[in-house]
């Protein structure tokens, strides 16, 4: 649920304009980082929960191929970032999460 008084970008509210698996994974992980950084103040914990639920829903509905493609897309994002940068580290985190999801779907 969006607070009309909240003027932050969607990504910082735990929502993502990118509804792809990798986009939702990135939004969820960013929401978790934000909530941790502010000690769960300002409803950040709830936003992280909502982002997690959106991610869980899309992963549950995804095929093994969908998860493979999402993992590869996340790897591509990391590959375009400067190695060692914050963007690279965050993209690698998303890629690792999706690698695990893909391997679990194959099992």
Explain the overall architecture:
With 107 residues, this protein is mostly helical. The protein has one domain (18-106). It is built from 4 helices and no strands. Helix 1 (21-37) runs antiparallel to helix 2, helix 1 packs across helix 4 and helix 3 packs antiparallel against helix 4. The protein is globular and about 40 Å long. Mean pLDDT is 88; it is low at 1-16.
Q: How do the strands and helices of this protein lay out in sequence?
A:
Elements: H1 21-37, H2 44-61, H3 64-80, H4 86-106
Helix pairs in contact: 1-2, 1-4, 3-4
Q: Could you spell the SSE succession in H and E letters?
A: HHHH
Note the main sheet: none
Tell me the domain tally. Answer: 1
Quote the beta fraction: under 5%
Can you count the beta strands?
A: 0
Show unreliable segments.
Answer: 1-16
Q: What coarse outline follows from CA principal-axis ratios?
A: globular
Which secondary-structure class do the elements indicate?
mainly alpha
The averaged pLDDT comes out at 88
């Amino acid at each position: 649920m969006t607070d009309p008084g909240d003027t932050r970008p969607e990504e910082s509210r735990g929502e993502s304009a990118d509804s792809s698996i990798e986009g939702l994974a990135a939004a969820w992980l960013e929401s978790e980082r934000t909530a941790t950084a502010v000690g769960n103040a300002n409803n950040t914990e709830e936003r992280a929960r909502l982002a997690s639920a959106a991610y869980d829903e899309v992963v549950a509905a995804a095929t093994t191929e969908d998860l493979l493609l999402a993992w590869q897309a996340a790897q591509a994002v990391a590959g375009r970032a400067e190695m060692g940068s914050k963007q690279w580290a965050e993209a690698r985190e998303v890629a690792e999460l999706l690698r695990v999801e893909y391997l679990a779907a194959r099992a």
